[in-house]
Amino acid sequence: MLSFFSNLRISAKLLLSISLLALLSVFIASLGVMSLNSTTTTARNLADKDAEAIRLAGIINTAHNRNQQIWLLSVIEHDRPDFEAFMARIKETDATVDTAMTELERMAPQESQKIGELRSALDEYRRETAKIPPLWYAERLGDAEDVLQHDSKDAFEVADTTASAISESVAQRAQQSSVALRDQASSTTWTLILVAGIGLAVIFGLIFVVIRNQITGPLAAITERMGKLAHGDTSIEVAGNERKDEIGDMARAVVVFRDNARQQEADAIAKARADADQKMVVDTLGESLNAMSQGDLTVTIMRDFPEAYAEVRANYNKAVSSLRELLGAAMESTAAIQTGSQEIAAASEDLARRTESNAASLEETSAAVTQMDDRLKATAAAAQRTVERADGAIRVVSSGRNTADEAVQAMGRVSESAKGIDSVIEGLDKIAFQTRVLAMNAAVEAGRAGEAGRGFAVVADLVSALAMRAEEESKRARDQLTITQDDIVAAVDMVQKVDGALANISSDVGEVHALLNNIATDNQAQSTAITQVSAAIGTMDQSTQQNAAMVEETSAAARNLWGEVASLAERASKFNIGEEYAATASLVKAGQKAAPAASKATVKALETRAMTPAKPAEAKPASDYQSPVKPLPSPAANGAAADEDWTSF
Question: Does residue 333 have a pLDDT over 50?
Answer without folding.
Answer: yes
